[in-house]
Amino acid sequence: MRISTEIGHFRLERFLIALLALAALLLAGRAWLEDHPQHNPWAPLNLNDPPGWATQRKLADLRGNPQSCRAVLERSGVEFAALEPAGEGGLPTG
Length: 94
What we know:
Blueprint: H1 11-35, H2 55-61, H3 66-75
């Protein structure tokens, strides 16, 4: 009995294995982000979470949006009192 030493190209099989590996990697990354919301740029900011890679960007997105800022404070359980705007509201230009 003779054993063949030539292996076929298996292009479809290699493509399917690569596709399955990519899908597994994406699912693992998504699960990790669910467990670490401080690193997830799409998760809402919660001040009870430790600082992470996405925290600074999430805080920057709150600038100029008082409704979102209040939502973060409420979601985080921070007591606050909204004050009326005071002053001219602009930054010094000089």
